[in-house]
Design a protein that fits this description.
The protein has one domain: Spore Coat Polysaccharide Biosynthesis Protein SpsA, Chain A (Alpha-Beta Complex), CATH 3.90.550. The protein contains 14 helices and eight strands. It is globular.
Length: about 375
């Protein structure tokens, strides 16, 4: 029984990290669904939700104004979620001729801020961006070309995460995102993605769904688009750059836990949609729910392994597990002292990724909700 439990738990972990990627890669090659792209210049509302971004907002708006898109078809909106620094002043005084400022008059959270901005927007296509994200000049053109296909309702771009700092968090996030990007690209080629990148995604305005404050908007809008019978896809040529934030391990844990908590709530709320669409149920279970469940399976495997130490093979496997967690603990100890030996990023970030779901489960049990947000930059400051 212990052997069956051990190998069953290991099989789930292998499926999540190897089996499902291989499956979706194969499906994308055997049954691709190309997008009928064409030069297309609909009116666009470019929305930046900001909270205390005085250090970056001017650069962000300069980058947006430099986009290769007709100015008369590009509306730029900054929605300030109760900023208490100079964010609103900078927008109002330096960019008043090209940028609309929507002050929220208090903190309501990013999702509500985006709801309000879409209500005020006039574009056929809504593009959402974070205040730190640097867009390549042709990124918006690349995204909107997909809307020439009437089946496309949501388009997300491709994010390159900065590794200019030496922090383990930044290097780990960049490596993890490469794996995530592989999955999303192939899901898009086969059918649809069930989540967009919050710093670079777009949606047809008429398909936008106003959301509750505790819902992650980028994930929910992609799912809601698919629910309405449209595709949510990835545009690889819509490249943006997200600078490294150099946050702490604690910051990254809290960020990931917050995202997972809200993601689990959203999946539960939309369970009717998933139960009615078998493929999307497989996709969300494989890509999200089972992955978030990996730490539970790792704990089960570890416990089962403890009862099998009288066999040489299981002693070796137990030693391998101890080695992985020991390296992660050593990497964390060294990270706190700004010592980062090569190769230590992987075990440490693997443990960060798999500790976050446990914190998310704790938050769900406690009924905790986080609606407003603090950036890693605020924490670092």
């Amino acid at each position: 029984m212990a052997e069956a439990i051990f190998w069953g738990a290991i099989a789930v972990v292998v499926y999540v990290y190897v089996g499902y990627p291989a499956l979706i890669y194969l499906l994308a090659r055997v049954r691709p669904r190309p997008v009928r792209k064409a030069p297309h210049l609909p009116t666009v509302s470019f929305i930046v939700a900001a909270y205390n971004e005085e250090r970056v907002i001017a650069k962000k708006l300069a980058n947006t104004l430099a986009l290769d898109y007709p100015p008369d078809r590009l509306e730029i909106i900054v929605v300030s979620d109760g900023s208490t620094d100079r964010t609103e002043e900078i927008v109002r005084t330096e960019f008043a001729d090209r940028v609309r400022l929507l002050p929220m008059g208090g903190r309501h959270g990013k999702t509500i801020a985006q709801n309000r901005a879409v209500e005020a927007a006039t574009g056929e296509i809504i593009v959402f961006s974070d205040a730190t994200t640097v867009y390549r000049p042709d990124s918006v053109r690349a995204m909107v070309a997909n809307y020439a296909d009437p089946e496309v309702g949501c388009v997300t771009g491709t994010t390159i995460y900065g590794t200019e700092s030496d922090a383990t968090v930044d290097k780990g996030r960049a490596a993890y995102w490469n794996y995530e990007r592989f999955l999303r690209t192939n899901e898009s080629r086969f059918r649809s993605v069930l989540g967009a990148s919050g710093c670079v995604y777009s949606v047809r305005r008429r398909l936008y769904t106003p959301l509750a404050p505790d819902v992650i908007s980028d994930v929910a809008q992609a799912i809601k688009t698919v629910e309405q019978g449209y595709r949510a896809i990835v545009e690889d040529d819509a490249l943006v750059y997200e600078p490294a934030e150099s946050g702490t391990i604690h910051d990254e844990l809290q960020r990931r836990a917050r995202v997972i908590t809200r993601g689990l709530r959203l999946k539960f709320r939309l369970r009717g949609f998933f139960l009615a669409h078998p493929w999307f149920l497989v996709q969300v279970l494989s890509h999200r729910v089972l992955r978030w469940g990996v730490p539970l399976f790792l704990i089960v495997a570890f416990a089962a392994n403890l009862t099998l130490l009288d066999h040489p093979l299981y002693r070796l496997l137990f030693a391998a597990q101890l080695g992985l967690y020991g390296l992660a603990a050593l990497a964390y100890f060294l990270e706190r002292r700004n010592i980062r030996p090569p190769g230590f990023v992987i075990p440490l970030y693997f443990c960060v990724v798999n500790l976050a779901p446990l914190l998310a489960i704790r938050a769900l049990v406690r009924g905790e909700k986080q609606i407003v947000w603090e950036t890693g930059r605020s924490s670092a400051a």
